[in-house]
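hey m, so remember when u said the tokens were messed up on ur end? i reran from scratch. heres the input so u can diff it against urs
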Amino acid sequence: MSEREFPSNIGYENPPHPTVEREVENYRVYGIRWIQMIVYILANFANALSGMTFAPIESQTSIFYSITTTQVNALAIVFLFLYTFGTILSIWLSRKLSIRMIMIIGGILNLGVFIRLLSLINPKNGYVFLLIGQIFPAISAPFFLNSTALFAARWFAPSQRDIATSICSMANPLGKDFLEN
């Protein structure tokens, strides 16, 4: 084997190149980060609530809207189908925009849940509005679920990132559990 293929000078004994910058050790953190975290948690929690709204009341929803239980279940399953599309969109936007804008876009998409109110005008023909009202929050779900670590990394000091990520990650499962109990 030639030295060109397996150079012996690679390893820990070589000092870093003088132009290589070290990671910044002093972080500036703002007190508002805790308020940002609360907003992030509430938006994530609300998204989870909208995804599972009809699961506990499947039979009542089926009777009220004169639809099948399969159609009621589709209101929750739409979140699974649109997760990939929402993930691609959220990754693309997170590379282009700030975490603040990601939260705003996710929050606005979350507000699409109010389209479901139009289904109450004529419940017999309201399923379309229910489904459209579920599509927007379904697209916004990855905005919150996939950006938890990014949120913690941009707003919290390294010593606080693990706990911030853990707290933010629990908002969605707690939101889903809230409806089931």
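this time it looks ok to me. The two ends are 66 Å apart (CA to CA). if urs says something different then somethings off w ur setup not the seq
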